[in-house]
Specification:
By secondary structure, the protein is α+β, with helices and mostly antiparallel strands. The chain contains 10 helices and 10 strands. The protein has helices at about 1-35, 65-80, 95-105, 105-115, 145-160, 170-185, 190-195, 210-215, 220-230, 285-290; strands at about 65, 85-90, 125-130, 135-140, 185, 215, 235-240, 245-250, 255-260, 280. Helix 6 (about 170-185) runs antiparallel to helix 9. The termini are far apart.
């Protein structure tokens, strides 16, 4: 009797293992099938930049085999204005979970990639979920609303119409730089609120601040300039550290720094000054100014070594 029971248990166990194994095979086959399916990207969305950088490049391979693949996919997702996207870790990529955990928690690195896309495609919030079999889901909440985008585009259109199209790119950038500085001021009141851990009461941190409301923080100044540079088709991105944000621009065959915030200083007399001290300068020139607010991570912003 005991032998019969043991035989029945072995059969049941064997059947269970068979179905478990086959179910696992079905899951793996489905994952392989999904990984090999072509991913359709939006055909050059409106605010797509045709720029690749040292840190990240656009990709059409969404089967992740390395840490760099993760970074390139994140750039591609943001640069194409997507709000939701799925991709997969290749089964051969043993460090997938470890690298994913590291990247998803690195707000500085993700923020750097965010700096390299159009502000209209940049995120306010970004979330990640990864399954046990390597499916990664990305969800993006964008920083700018459709109404803000409309207002900003109309304002930039208005400014562009006043600029002679025959001017050099440097001259066009200077006119926009001077317009922003002359028609807005640094929002010290809300800057102090941020320093004290409070929320701000307007849109100074966005391009709508200096362009529409006449008040800006460094992120608002740099967003406005980036949107204009993108309009001109000039390679550029924003540089950020814990306290400041400015632009890096590829012009005349080299990368140069451009900081509207520091060219629009706060004065004790309240006078609205226009400076060009931080207008298209090299990295060495920036360092020689010895302003701690312009410290940055060269590892992330490799182009600065060519500036």
């Amino acid at each position: 009797m005991k032998k019969i029971i043991s035989f029945i248990v072995i059969i049941i166990l064997g059947i269970s293992l068979y179905f478990a194994y086959n179910n696992r095979m079905i899951i793996i086959q489905n994952v392989d099938k999904l990984m090999n399916e072509p991913v359709a990207l939006t055909d050059k969305p409106l605010y797509h930049n045709d720029f690749n950088f040292e840190l990240v490049k656009e990709t059409n391979d969404f089967n992740v085999k390395s840490r760099q693949d993760f970074l390139n996919i994140m750039y591609t997702v943001l640069n194409n204005g997507m709000t939701e996207f799925n991709f997969y870790c290749d089964p051969s990529y043993k460090d997938c979970l470890k690298d994913f955990d590291s990247i998803s928690k690195d707000s500085v690195l993700l923020g750097t990639i965010n700096n390299m896309v159009s502000p209209f495609n940049s995120y306010d919030k970004i979330s990640f979920v990864i399954s046990n079999y390597g499916k990664v889901k990305v969800e993006v909440t964008k920083l700018y609303t459709d109404d803000e985008i409309k207002q900003i585009n109309e304002k930039i259109d208005e400014i562009v119409k006043t600029i002679d199209p025959n001017l050099t790119d440097r001259e066009k950038i200077e006119i926009f730089h001077d317009y922003i500085v002359n028609n807005s001021s640094y929002d010290k009141e809300n800057a102090d609120r941020i320093t004290n851990g409070e929320s701000i009461t307007n849109s100074s941190h966005k391009a709508i601040g200096p362009l529409i409301e006449g008040k800006g923080l460094c992120s608002g100044y740099s967003d406005a300039m980036k949107l204009y540079l993108d309009r001109l088709g000039i390679p550029n991105y924003k540089i950020t550290n814990e306290n400041h944000c400015w632009n890096l621009v590829y012009i005349d065959g080299k990368w140069l720094h451009l900081d509207l915030t520091w060219d629009d200083p706060i004065t004790s007399t309240g006078d609205n000054l226009l400076l060009h001290k931080f207008f298209l300068i090299t990295t060495d020139e920036l360092k020689n100014l010895n302003v701690k607010s312009h410290d940055f991570n060269v590892e992330y912003y490799n182009e600065t070594e060519k500036a």
